[in-house]
Design goal:
It is built from 8 helices and 9 strands. It is of the alpha/beta class and 242 residues long. The strands form 2 sheets. The chain has a 6-stranded mixed beta sheet, with helices on both faces. Strands 2-1-4 form a 3-stranded antiparallel beta sheet, covered by helices on one side.
Length: 242
Amino acid sequence: MTVRAKACDLPIRFEEVSIARGGVTMLDRMSLRIDAGAPTVLVGPNGSGKTTLLRAAMGLLAPTRGRITWAGLEYAPPERRAFVFQRPAMLRRSVAGNLRYALRQASASRTRRDARVEELLALVGLGGFERRPARRLSGGEQQRLAVARALARDPAVLFLDEPTASLDPASTKAIEEVIAAVAAAGIKIVMATHDLGEARRLAGEILLVHRGRLVERAAAAQFLNAPTADEARAFVAGELLV
């Protein structure tokens, strides 16, 4: 797999960002910087703000206060960013049809589309599935197709929201292998997971988000072996954060 352009949307910077909806604060004065490099993995209990942070970094949610910039720009269209939701919707088309649609939306040349479909399906381990209805794939296969569909945009940054939630171990392993391959190709991965084992296997750095705040950020080994914040120590120890 090749990358056509440098990560032009990086760094992504949050400056005292708060996001509130319906009287509920989902992010609370969040400040952080996301740079190119190994995957950044967000961990934390359900409802901690991980998904909100991902959506805001993608540009899907606007801050209530503070600001977000992409490579120094406050208003940057998400042309080199892509997002895979926890439960991605499949179009009523074949596997190849889903990818061709994504390639058309990304303005890929007509002459390049067939080769690109083949390349993307090989990357995610779905070669030979071209004619299969996408909605008849297993959950793990649909998730891999969703990743391939996101990669049709040739993103510099790929956001993944709990990409292996509810998947069996074999499907989880397949998704993790795809994520590792994408990261090795130079695409920045920013993902949320509830699984510390997955964070250990994939992360370059780990961020603990709790109650909408960034509690701890560290290289993966340091976070897992010598966390400093009380909440991080409790989380690594398997205790519940409330």
